């Protein structure tokens, strides 16, 4: 079956909440019913057919074409299937996601993977602040799954994150891993200031030495971290895209903290890349 | 039936249902993985006295292990999941975690599970760290050599224990030489182990005893020194009987292992002191799996 394709007919001026367009919500609906689904556009609720032209049939594979950064809540709460977006998207991509796969071929706004429970999100471009974080009032941030960012991420990556893995191929902003409860954040380019601020547990892996490590982190020295071998091997086997992880070795400078909080978190600064 | 002059008895090996798990032990070098695996599988020859049956299944290349280091696949068999739960974490805790540079992972993935690092983590005294990667949960336990990584659980599957055959030779040296060759061939079959020392049983048993407290005792019908004293199953030229017991994950792999082992034994022939191959059974009352030698070798 061909993927179910939604092509944006307008250039949105307000936020367009596409949270109903998930495999979970569309799987038992006919195309006629899908066209009549109301989605929130600014303050109004408008039928899908007025905003998108719809082709294809497979609700397990949804494509959104001609996207804009006004589209918010892509894949909200989805538990299975795939959503592929051609273009940029706004905030809250993959919010409360429970499974499946979201691929954004562009940039994304803030709060990507907000309170995500499982599944995988791939962003080909950059993302805004609060990647994998929890909203005020949420008990915590993402609690499982994997988020892969090809570009850069904003501030407060993984704020109050509880479990799961975030991989940022580019740079991360300030307060990366702030108030982390657990989980793993990997930044392959430079991270901003105050990484791990207030973290209780969890792991922040930095491939490049940061400019600044908070005074509330204590050095454990350069060590071979057995967990890094396991992590990099497992990641490198999770598809071609992550195959490059097999070049990283287990040697890292370990900082433990944040001693102002629980103090059982760690920042691992990678020391070597395998050669040959 | 004869193969290379060796008589194959028209009988069957009787096997019974068990539960099994596989665990993967990795270390900095294969030597240290072997040391941990040998310790874990020590004193695990028979469920009768050891609580489980365990042996090394095979070596693993770094590409086959979860952390990219050399490793060993070990299989553990027991009569129930509860028995496995009782044996495996204790053996991992005392034999693998204590070995330098090791890590321990699940080698089987199934719905039914037993704990591996689930309770061992408490050795970390609050400094242990949980990590979930691709749906698998691992524990990082800080230890003096660095970190002991242990997967939280390992899968359990239905299995079969007690596939066997008896090798009758002129002397122990003759029988042992042929059995060693058989074990080499059996090791090439995936999914089976031979848990007794060196894979070979020197004191095969029958069920029951004249002493009420014993569940098993010597199989006098196959003891060469009792010829003439009891109703012996041995001809006058047989001076030694050895048994190979095989546990496996399925009937197919046990059949394949028995075939490989018996053919290896038969390749020696009467000229090299191998006269007869038989199998141990208890009249079909012990277990539901009957491996007829003639079917296996057909």
Describe the overall structure:
The complex is a heterodimer of chains A (276) and B (298). Chain A is mainly β. Chain A is 9% helix and 29% strand. In chain A, the strands form two sheets. Chain A has a 13-stranded mixed β-sheet. In chain A, strands 4-3-2-7 form a four-stranded mixed β-sheet. In chain A, β3 (38-41) and β4 form a beta hairpin. Chain B has 298 residues and is of the alpha+beta class. Chain B has two domains: 2-14 and 159-297, Alpha-Beta Plaits (2-Layer Sandwich), CATH 3.30.70; 19-157, Alpha-Beta Plaits (2-Layer Sandwich), CATH 3.30.70. In chain B, a hairpin with a 2-residue loop joins β1 and β2. In chain B, α1 crosses α3 (81-96) and α4 crosses α5. The mean pLDDT of chain B is 96. At the A-B interface, α4 of A face β8, β9 and β10 of B.
Which structural traits does this protein have?
heterodimer, A: 276 residues, mainly beta, 4 helices, 17 strands, 9% helix, B: 298 residues, alpha+beta, Alpha-Beta Plaits, 2 domains, eleven-stranded mixed sheet, three-stranded antiparallel sheet, 6 helices, elongated
Give a short overview:
In chain A, 9% of the residues lie in helices and 29% in strands.
Give the topology, please.
The complex is a heterodimer of chains A (276) and B (298).
Chain A: E1 3-8, E2 16-17, H1 23-26, H2 31-36, E3 38-41, E4 44-47, H3 48-51, E5 52-55, E6 58-65, E7 71-72, E8 82-86, E9 101-105, E10 120-123, E11 146-149, E12 165-168, E13 184-187, E14 203-206, E15 218-224, H4 226-236, E16 251-257, E17 265-270
Parallel strand pairs in A: 1-6, 2-7, 6-8, 8-9, 9-10, 10-11, 11-12, 12-13, 13-14, 14-17
Antiparallel strand pairs in A: 1-5, 2-3, 3-4, 15-16, 16-17
Chain B: E1 2-3, E2 6-8, E3 12-26, H1 30-40, H2 47-50, E4 53-60, E5 71-78, H3 81-96, E6 103-106, E7 113-115, E8 129-133, E9 136-143, E10 146-151, E11 153-155, E12 157-169, H4 172-186, E13 192-193, E14 205-207, E15 216-218, E16 240-248, H5 251-266, E17 274-278, E18 289-292, H6 293-297
Parallel strand pairs in B: 2-17
Antiparallel strand pairs in B: 1-2, 3-5, 3-6, 3-12, 3-18, 4-5, 7-11, 8-9, 9-10, 12-16, 12-17, 13-16, 14-15
Helix pairs in contact in B: 1-3, 4-5
